[in-house]
Amino acid sequence: VGACIVNEENKIVGIGYNGMPVGCHDDEMPWGRDSDNILETKQLYVCHAELNAVLNKNSADVKNCTIYVALFPCNECAKVVIQSGIKEVVYYSDKYKDKPEFVASKKMLDMAGVKYRQHIPKQKQILIDFTAIDAMTGTNVKEVLKADQTSF
């Protein structure tokens, strides 16, 4: 899962992904979801993308920014979004919408006045042909990238 925070000028001010806390090595921690022992799952250890994006910000704050996320934020991430002053959440999937954590998330975001909306992409995938890019001149690359841009 990933998250990207942009300011009012649509400039990236923070990015993050689901990962273990600093100093906790990925290869020494559990990454599974299912186990009879919750200590053997990732749930208790992983820092979510939204939290990491706020913590990894490259500006003084993220007030009035928009966060783009793959999944609708859980209740813990909604708290981080609200407390940091983010004004809008744009998400791709709401597949956990009926789980209590996500119902609570929407309740908190609504109460705090944080807008949220689902992004419906115009295309289901983007293909990047790196061999074609290597063969192009600088001008051609700019033209191809400009033609392939999709906007949120």
Describe this protein's structure.
It is an enzyme of class 3 (hydrolase). InterPro entries: APOBEC/CMP_deaminase_Zn-bd (IPR016192), CMP_dCMP_dom (IPR002125), Cytidine_deaminase-like (IPR016193), dCMP_deaminase (IPR016473), dCMP_deaminase-rel (IPR015517). Residues 1-116 form the CMP/dCMP-type deaminase domain. Pfam families: dCMP_cyt_deam_1. Its cofactor is Zn(2+). The chain is α/β, with parallel strands linked by helices and 152 residues long. It has a single domain (2-121), classed as Cytidine Deaminase, domain 2 (3-Layer(aba) Sandwich), CATH 3.40.140.10. It has five helices and five strands. The chain has helices at residues 49-55, 75-84, 100-112, 130-135, 138-148, and strands at 2-6, 12-17, 66-71, 88-93, 115-118. The protein has a five-stranded mixed beta sheet, covered by helices on one side. It is globular, with a radius of gyration of 18 Å. The relative contact order is 0.14. The mean pLDDT is 90.
